[in-house]
Write a structure and sequence with these properties.
- This protein has 219 residues and is mainly α.
- The protein has 2 domains: 2-63, Orthogonal Bundle (Arc Repressor Mutant, subunit A); 68-207, Four Helix Bundle (Hemerythrin (Met), subunit A) (Up-down Bundle), CATH 1.20.120.
- The chain has 10 helices and 3 strands, in the order αβααββααααααα.
- The protein has a 3-stranded antiparallel sheet.
- A hairpin with a 3-residue loop joins strand 2 (53-56) and strand 3.
- It is globular, with a radius of gyration of 18 Å.
- The model is unreliable at 213-219 (pLDDT under 50).
Length: 219
């Protein structure tokens, strides 16, 4: 039951159904999910470790705000981790693994054309986690997994704020092409350069939306 509550609340936060900074009514959540307060607290503590909620003693629990500091910190962490991951993966990737990544890239473009954003986000995360696995470093793989929920949430944020969401998804899918090409060339420098640019593009899209009404930009 606790696992189901954890997944349900996490999904709502990532998909922006619980808005950034919104207070969580824990009693109402427990009743809605059909669980007691103890398993709900366990779920919220797990989400706090993933930086998706903030628990303030005697004040309440809130979805982590989308502040400038939060966004920049997440992007900085992901850039540092994925640079190392992609350098390692470029020296270890096999032809079979490349073929799998290429097939997923094609699937991402299909999902983009179908405007199936939820499935696109899941496959995007799967793609990056697979490259982390290919790198052969379980610690880097774990670090990436810890930041992926925030990254998924950022993608939903970008999508919700885009004037042309269908174009945003397609651009996101096409952004994986140079990544695969870099791995195919087994070039550690090109792989690092490509993933750095890939993350930078998402960062620029996200930061351009920060002046939207209702979005916190606290320093």
């Amino acid at each position: 039951m606790g696992e189901e509550a954890y997944n349900a609340i996490k999904d709502r936060i990532i998909r922006m159904r619980i808005a950034p900074g919104q207070a969580l009514n824990t009693k109402a959540l427990a009743k809605e999910l059909g669980i007691g307060m103890a398993p709900l607290r366990d779920a919220l503590q797990r989400l706090e470790k993933e930086h998706l909620v903030v628990i303030l003693p005697r004040k309440g629990t809130y979805a982590t705000p989308m502040t400038l500091v939060e966004l920049q910190t997440a992007f900085d962490a992901r850039t540092l981790v994925e640079r190392a991951i992609w350098r390692m993966a470029a020296t270890r990737v096999t032809e079979k693994q490349l073929q799998t990544l290429q097939a997923w890239f094609a699937d991402m473009r299909l999902l983009a054309n179908k405007r199936d954003f939820g499935s696109f986000i899941e496959l995007d995360s799967r793609f990056h986690r697979e490259v982390a696995r290919i790198s052969g470093n379980v610690y880097l793989e774990g670090f990436l997994s810890s930041v992926m929920p925030t990254t998924q949430r950022i993608w939903y944020y970008v999508h919700s704020g885009s004037e042309r969401p269908e174009q945003s998804i397609l651009e996101g899918a096409d952004g994986h092409r140079p990544l695969i090409e870099a791995l195919g060339k087994r070039s550690v420098d090109l792989a690092e350069e490509s993933i750095t640019q890939h993350i930078s593009n998402l960062r620029c899209k996200c930061l351009s939306l920060l002046d939207r009404p209702g979005v916190s930009v606290a320093m």
